[in-house]
Design brief:
Blueprint (H helix, E strand, L loop, with lengths): L8 E4 L15 H14 L3 E4 L27 H13 L3 E6 L3 E3 L3 H7 L3 H4 L4 E3 L19 E3 L5 E4 L6 E3 L5 H16 L4 E4 L27 H13 L8 E5 L5 H8 L8 E3 L21 H17 L5 E2 L9 H4 L7 H13 L4 E5 L20 H12 L4 H11 L36 H7 L2 H14 L1 H5 L3 E3 L6 E8 L2 E8 L5 E4 L8 E5 L9 E4 L4 E6 L5
Parallel strand pairs: 1-2, 1-13, 2-3, 3-9, 9-10, 10-11, 12-13
Antiparallel strand pairs: 4-8, 5-7, 6-7, 14-15, 15-16, 16-20, 17-19, 18-20
The structure holds alpha-D-glucopyranose (GLC) and calcium ion.
Length: about 550
């Protein structure tokens, strides 16, 4: 068994992956059908976004039962068949554990509503302040306030996310025991990976207080007690299985905390996702705005995280895309002129770096944002909430649509484009979310026949297995002030790797260290060039130079 350092993980958003029965929603039999495709790509593990029974207000991140499969995705025997098919293809399965909150349709919340004290203590119920105002002045991350009236009582329940996602009370030992039971249930089904949704906000203080001067997130994020809860969960469940791979989704986190979450001796998690590099195109920290990305800030973040996590023996989960982010190829490159070169360059930056790379479905064929014209074509709850909010603030419809086109989570949720048939071969029915118009041009079938992005990913995945410096090496910034190039050095025993990435659609020049002049090109997205002390990098060129004695 290879360690998580050599693995590459592929994220599936089941609703949008492949529909098998024509209801317009992707499902487990659809995933089973495509396992050979994923095997061909070479990934070690697939992470499935939530597949549990749910009212689907937040597409399954509002769980109503942790121990079953939502009929929209299939049955438990479909799940078992998927496990079997995956195992036969040497692919492991990672499940999404949404433990900060449950759906308000979960039996626990329903029992709480029915007046059962035991279950009321599963949630964060608080009375209004003496003056009748809400328990705290916190905002929901999906817009509006974070408190909702708890039925006819004088109490309010906390929801950091949607009003139908009620935050759990992790101070209650019974809640913590239940969560360990959930993990153990899926471990017994042969699941070897867990992704923990917004896990760094589970630990709230006993007394919740008003935020002042924008310190709201610090009141519930990365609290020291979160580390205790995760360690306890580790010991009571996945920590018993040494092959298990775990990753925590960390909202607004710090390097310091991610070191603690991922240092092996702390027995918390294998690795952590952070999102700082995906906020470099936020204007004054505001997601719902449009701004060009700040390249220097992007590099500084990669370099700080890369170097400090290496120094402290922590481990990063590396990614550009997921179901909450616009497509990186549209966001950080020119998806009209340089889509193919851009997709490969972004892939190389992540796959050759220190950490475990994650691929999000469709990324391996260079899928783009769909640029829908109408607000009705967007389905995401966060997008629709903010549309309302921005309207109320007085922004014009057209202005808001421009923001949504670049920022909506639906950008990555459009159905996977499999072929040129109707609905891109995703469904024979009406897809729950429209297929992007460019599916005749961009689809799996065409990519496998004549494209080059998929093959580039295959190669990157294989390189990680063949060259120890990629999985094991340290990380060091290189020429970090260069105007167009993000570059880094990796080193492990006698091996050295230099990775150069031109983030712009115009040529540039960079000087390389002398030892690399006689190095070999491990991978590049352009026809080979002669390596000299000065290199010209073409638009969106990526080039990795290797010095060492691994011979493949
Ligand atoms: C995470 C998920 C996101 C979800 C939220 C609330 O950020 O990735 O999709 O809406 O948590 O569960
Ligand atoms: Ca279906």
């Amino acid at each position: 068994m290879s360690s998580f350092k050599e693995k590459v993980i592929y994220q599936i958003y089941p609703r949008s992956f492949k529909d098998s029965n024509g209801d317009g929603i992707g499902d487990l039999p659809g995933i089973i059908e495509k396992i050979p495709y994923l095997k061909k790509l070479g990934v070690d593990m697939i992470w499935l976004s939530p597949i549990y029974p749910s009212p689907q207000n937040d597409n399954g991140y509002d769980v109503a039962d942790y121990f079953d499969i939502d009929p929209v995705f299939g049955t438990m025997s479909d799940f078992e068949a998927l496990m079997k098919q995956a195992r036969e293809n040497d692919i492991d399965v990672m499940l999404d554990m949404v433990f900060n909150h449950t759906s308000t349709e979960h039996q626990w919340f329903q029992n709480a509503l029915a007046g059962e004290k035991k279950y009321q203590d599963y949630y964060l119920l608080k009375p209004a302040k003496a003056d009748g105002s809400l328990p705290t002045n916190w905002d929901s991350k999906f817009g509006g306030v974070a408190w909702e009236k708890f039925d006819e009582t004088d109490l309010y329940y906390l929801h950091l996310y949607d009003v139908t996602q009620a935050d759990l009370n992790w101070r209650n030992t019974e809640v913590r025991k239940k969560m360990a039971e959930v993990v153990n249930f899926w471990l017994e089904k042969g699941v070897h990976g867990f992704r923990f949704d917004v896990i760094n906000v589970i630990g709230k203080d006993a007394e919740l207080v008003d935020s002042v001067a924008g310190n709201e997130k610090s009141l519930y994020t990365d609290k020291p007690i979160v580390h205790e809860y995760i360690h306890e969960l580790n010991q009571a469940s996945f920590g018993q299985d040494e092959n298990c791979v775990t990753v925590g989704e960390m909202s607004a986190t710090s390097i310091e905390n991610c070191l603690l979450y991922s240092q092996p001796e702390r027995q918390e998690l294998s690795m952590a996702f952070n999102f700082h590099h995906l906020k470099v195109d936020y204007e004054n920290g505001e997601k719902w705005s449009t701004a060009p990305f700040n390249f220097q800030e992007l590099k500084d973040l990669f370099n700080e995280w890369g170097e400090q996590m290496a120094r402290g023996d922590g481990w990063n989960a590396l990614f550009w895309n997921n179901h909450d982010q616009p497509r990186a190829v549209s966001r950080f490159t020119d998806d009209q002129e340089y889509r193919v070169a851009g997709a490969k360059m972004l892939a190389a930056t992540v796959h050759l770096s220190r950490g475990t790379p994650f691929i999000y479905q469709g990324e391996e064929i260079g899928m783009t944002n769909p640029n829908f014209a109408l607000i009705e074509e967007y389905k995401d709850i966060e997008t629709l909430n903010f549309y309302q909010e921005l309207r109320e603030k007085g922004l014009a419809h057209a202005e808001i649509m421009a923001i949504i086109r670049s920022k909506s989570r639906d950008n990555s949720r459009t159905p996977v484009q499999w072929d040129q048939s109707e609905n891109a071969g995703f469904t024979t029915g009406t897809p729950w979310l429209k297929v992007a118009d460019n599916y005749l041009e961009i689809n799996v079938k065409k990519e496998l026949a004549s494209g080059s992005i998929f093959a580039f990913y295959q190669k990157l995945i294989q390189l990680r297995k063949d060259y120890p410096v990629i999985a094991q090496g340290n990380y060091q910034r290189y020429k970090d002030q260069h105007e167009q190039v993000y570059a880094y050095l990796r080193e492990y025993q006698e091996e050295q790797l230099l990775v150069l990435n031109n983030f712009y659609g115009k040529e540039t020049q960079i000087e390389i260290p002398t030892e690399f002049v006689s190095g070999t090109v491990l991978i590049s997205n352009y026809p080979q060039q002669k390596v000299g002390a000065q290199l010209i990098l073409r638009p969106y060129e990526t080039l990795a130079l290797y010095v060492g004695d691994t011979k493949i």
